[in-house]
Specification:
alpha+beta, eleven-stranded mixed beta sheet, two-stranded antiparallel sheet, 5 helices, about 15% helix
Length: about 260
Amino acid sequence: MNLKEMTPEEMVSRLLYRDGLMLVIDKPAGFAVHNGPKGGVSLEDHFGALRFGLPRSPSLAHRLDRDTSGCLVLGRHRKALAALGKRFKNGEVGKTYWAVVEGSPAADEGVVDLPLGRLDVTRGWWMKHDPNGQPAVTKWKVRGRDPSRSRAWLALEPLTGRTHQLRVHCAEMSWPILGDNIYGNAPRMAGPALHLHAREVVVPLYKNRDPIKVTAPVPDHMREALTQCGWRDEAPEIALASDAPHEAAISRSSL
């Protein structure tokens, strides 16, 4: 997909969840979510297609790396964005990522607790394990392994939100994410796409209501490797709440 040529219909087709406060879209891999210092086109440039009658476009409630696919949460207006931002900042939002890694962990599950710091000021957002850096904790669990045990399918739950946290933690554990051309073994050009997918978000947005759980379908570029590790295809889960005016009003008043 060429982001410059993305149509409003294509943007809307990536919608996974919608209510009066929040949208969740299925972010494609390979595209920045917002414009960087060098400019260029980003996914944010297409959020106007997601207004659904509101006067302003939705805004990012958090970030995903350019090369990561999956659940991306947007706030539909300022009050919603503030509420979502508070929940992300306080660690109340549950996030589960799926990854295919090179190598195979000896255990079936565990926790990586390795502080992270900036690799080099000249390397932008590149990170490294730094004992004096910011705390970074990731829970992980093996969901499957390929027959040769040369790759594994992991569920990763970041308990903190550091830049490139999952990629650095996996690399430091000697099982880098497949397709990682910064921290892993992938070539800088013409290698496989990063096999890291924001599979699920669980957002406790409303009082006296169950948290909202949204699942993103597996992207095409990860299907083969996941299948080799035991994954079986399933129908995508789509959850669209009513967006009638009375529903939006109830949602806003329930914060």
